[in-house]
Every structure is written in structure tokens, then in C-alpha cells.
Amino acid sequence: AQSVSQHNHHVILSEAASLELGCNYSYGGTVNLFWYVQYPGQHLQLLLKYFSGDPLVKGIKGFEAEFIKSKFSFNLRKPSVQWSDTAEYFCAVRTDRGSTLGRLYFGRGTQLTVWP
Amino acid sequence: GAVVSQHPSRVICKSGTSVKIECRSLDFQATTMFWYRQFPKKSLMLMATSNEGSKATYEQGVEKDKFLINHASLTLSTLTVTSAHPEDSSFYICSALSRRGTDTQYFGPGTRLTVL
């Protein structure tokens, strides 16, 4: 079965520090990759997504992610975090297999805490 | 655009009663909606896929007679938790796929269910 791993469960940074959150998946076929963010008390919002083309994708709020097919990875990065980036971040993968069109497989999430 | 609402946002009920949660796509039509359950410190667990005009597809281990799903229109799916027990207390989240494509899921704000 497809699985998505997020290695960091809780990351604590100071403002202006650089961020990289890891995401690996286990599926050898075609994938669509997503990062979602959940701010405290709010619903999941799409940060960015990769379908094809340039493996370096840019999302909202200064986030970017790089798809490295050989490593089955889609790590999320931000050069300089802000206090307002404090949230839970979820990596998700959609594959071209399975009977459920559009189904996403989620990682367990990474809680990012940014200290001012 | 692409707003998904859920109602209610919070509900408290007694054991043995049934609770209905609504998921609406406000500005687009959704042929497919998904229902997730989110546990504290854990990822989103897909419960079922709701397809407009047909029976829902349940994930392994999810009791279809307990979690009734109805997708009566292109903008509304409902999840009914029947004969609720305290262990059903959780955060339930729905998402919707636009009818135009299957590229992105849009998430609702979630419903916090507490069963006493």
C-alpha cells in the first residue's frame, strides 16, 4: 500500500531561520504531490502542489518544495520563517492506482512552532 | 473560490444518539467528496469516498452502517454517525473535488464531535 512519511513530528525554530520539512512516499508510479497547512483552529489549506514539469514548485507565503523522483521525496522549504508560520504541515500524495479517483494519502503531519 | 463549509462546527451528544454532519461546496460542484477523521497528533484518516448519486466507498475497517454517507446533490454530502459512542469523539473533516477536474481537494473547516 502507498504510504507517506514525514520524518519530523515537531520542529521548533526561531524567526528568520530556514525551514526544511521532509516527506517521502512509497510508490513507484506516477504521483501528484501536495503540501497542506493547517493553522491553529483553521481548516487545511493548500500550500503548493506538483503534477509535472519543473520539479521545484513555488507555493504561497514563500514556501517551495522540490520533487526528487529518485529519492521519492518532496521536501518543503522556506528560507526564512515567521511566527505566523506556526502550524501543522501535511504532505499528501495521489497516485495513478486504485479505484478511488483523487484519493490522497497523507503523512502524519509536522507541527512547526516558530518563536518570535 | 473553492470554498467548502461544514455544519455544525461543534456538536456534543449523548451516547446512543445519532449526529448528522453536512459538507457543502459553496461555489463549485463536487462529484466526489471525501470524509476524514483526524486524531490528535496523527494524520487524517480517510473514512470514505462519497460520489454524487451513488453509494459511498468505505475504507477498510470503517463500519458503513455506523457512518452513513449520503451525497444527494453536487454540492452536499452528509455524514451521519449512528448510535454514537464516546470513542467516536473526534474531528471529522470533509473535502471536495471540483467537477471540472480532479487535481485538488478543497477542505472544510471540520466538525468537532464529542460524545458523552
Order of helices and strands of chain A: EEEEEEEEEEEE
Alpha plus pi helix count of chain A? 0
Proportion in helices of chain B: under 10%
Number of strands of chain B: 11
* Low-confidence sequence ranges of chain B: none
What's the shape of chain A? globular
Number of strands of chain A: 12
Please give the alpha-carbon distance between the first and last residues of chain A.
Answer: 41 Å
The secondary structure category of chain B is mainly beta
Low-pLDDT runs of 5+ residues of chain A are: none
Specify the overall morphology of chain B.
Answer: globular
Question: In terms of topology, how is this protein built?
Answer:
The complex is a heterodimer of chains A (116) and B (116).
Chain A: E1 4-5, E2 10-14, E3 19-21, E4 24-25, E5 31-38, E6 44-50, E7 56-58, E8 64-68, E9 73-78, E10 87-95, E11 105-106, E12 110-115
Parallel strand pairs in A: 2-12
Antiparallel strand pairs in A: 1-4, 3-9, 5-6, 5-10, 7-8, 8-9, 10-11, 10-12
Chain B: E1 4-7, E2 10-13, E3 19-25, E4 30-38, E5 44-51, E6 57-58, E7 67-73, E8 76-81, E9 90-98, E10 105-107, E11 111-115
Parallel strand pairs in B: 2-11
Antiparallel strand pairs in B: 1-3, 3-8, 4-5, 4-9, 5-6, 7-8, 9-10, 9-11
